[in-house]
Amino acid sequence: MVIFMFTTVILAAGMGTRMKSEKPKVLHKVCGKALCRWVIDAAKEAGSEKVCTIVGHKADMVKGEIGDVCEFALQAEQKGTGHAVMQALDFIKSSQGEVVILNGDTPLVTAEAIKNAVSYHRSLKNNATVITAVLDNATGYGRIVRDNDGNVLKIVEQKDASEEEKKIKEVNSGMYVFDAQSLVYALDKITPNNAQGEYYLTDTLEILWGAGKKVGGYTIEDNDEIRGINDRVQLGEADKIMQKRINEYHMRNGVTIRNPESVIIESDVEIGNDTEIMQNVTIKSGSRVGKNCVIGMGTILDRAVIHDNVDILSSVILESEIDEGTHVGPFAYVRPNCKVGKDVKVGDFVELKNSNIDDGTKISHLTYIGDSDIGKRVNFGCGTVTCNYDGKKKYRTTIGDDCFVGCNTNFVSPINVGDGAYIAAGSTITEDIPKDSLSIARARQVNKEGWKDKRN
């Protein structure tokens, strides 16, 4: 069994001026995850023991977004790809075996491709391996020139290529596998001997060739994996490719997705088998959906936890938990910090906020429940409102088990309602209600006969 333990350096210091953004390029997101985070996660999944990300432009912002998932090295002044890698020299010197060089703006690279490149590098005992791709249109890319044995002889940039070399379709992806000590040796010898005064990482290959070292080329199978993101158009293209991968992953794991081209499922989402996702659904990162659920058309789930056998129709659920067998919607709005129990009904145009709803409760329509704790088997009539805010502070409403709340009831919080209480329709409740009581809080009806004639 091959153990894929290596280290990785990720280049993520550039400004990304073509993005026309205040945010560093590598923090723009594909399917809910920052570009460079996709690359970090792929390297780790492939078996990278340590990852060092080279940061530069708005380095603190990048570090803050990525967090403590990797080490960092600072490229304070951008002087080329070789110079970027040189900032991680101490990291590289402490590495054993291989160092993989990746780009922070290539989110489509996969763990499998990285693993295969390392395996290829080892099997041929290369000192360096260029990760390449074969493109129908190679314009703009550096061309890979090989000898008869398949070894890489040189990389020729577009501007320097002869007419014959321009016909070559194999190109440099900008990703590499190096023997760690060979990379240290080559970095020590590169110079900024070019018009831009920059240190190019490709110069390390020439140094290794000159020293009689072996340089190979591993051709990646899926050309999409080398796509770099330089502007919003390319960002959109990458998002579409990644979304297709994500949706197909879930479908192969037993999820039915109707019209998958219309469904957005971000990274790091879990969905149980036999769940059905209808068209125009959005499920954002951090959400979990159980088995045998139906997520209806137009639903948005954002960091929501949905248990098994839940039916959601055209609703929005944010940072909340919905337990088994519950029905939500249509057009319900569950705001953050709600916990909804088993076999609950949250019907049309119901809004919940910062509330706990226990098992078997029915909130069928046109009701607002905020900052509340609701017991089991409570029935809410249409138009109920918990008046939880007095203009300065928020207050809670507590309703016990087996209560009946008539239509158009207002609870002026803070209120405590005992188990089994009944509340007459149209009541405005300003005082606590004892257990098993009937509460009527409305003026007695008065009919003024003949009032219309007098008015006229």
Structural write-up:
By secondary structure, the protein is of the alpha/beta class. Helix content is 20%, strand content 29%. An eleven-stranded parallel sheet has the order 12-15-18-21-24-27-30-33-36-39-41, covered by helices on one side. The protein starts with 5 loop residues before the first strand and ends with a helix.
Oligomer type: single chain
Summing up helix and strand content along with how strands pair, one would put the structural category as alpha/beta
Strand order of the largest sheet: 12-15-18-21-24-27-30-33-36-39-41
Main β sheet profile: 11 strands, parallel
- Percent helix, as a range, is 10-25%
What's the helix and strand layout?
Layout: E1 6-12, E2 29-30, E3 33-34, H1 35-46, E4 48-55, H2 59-66, E5 71-74, H3 81-86, H4 89-93, E6 98-103, H5 111-123, E7 128-134, E8 143-146, E9 152-156, H6 163-166, E10 170-179, H7 180-187, H8 202-210, E11 215-219, H9 232-252, E12 256-257, E13 264-265, E14 270-271, E15 276-277, E16 282-283, E17 288-289, E18 294-295, E19 300-302, E20 305-306, E21 311-312, E22 316-318, E23 321-322, E24 327-328, E25 333-334, E26 339-340, E27 345-348, E28 351-353, E29 356-357, E30 362-365, E31 368-370, E32 372-374, E33 379-380, E34 385-387, E35 397-399, E36 404-405, E37 410-412, E38 415-417, E39 422-423, E40 428-429, E41 438-439, H10 451-455
Parallel strand pairs: 1-4, 1-6, 4-5, 7-11, 12-15, 13-16, 14-17, 15-18, 16-19, 17-20, 18-21, 19-22, 20-23, 21-24, 22-25, 23-26, 24-27, 25-28, 26-29, 27-30, 28-31, 29-32, 30-33, 32-35, 33-36, 34-37, 35-38, 36-39, 37-40, 39-41
Antiparallel strand pairs: 2-3, 6-10, 7-10, 8-9
Helix pairs in contact: 1-5, 7-8
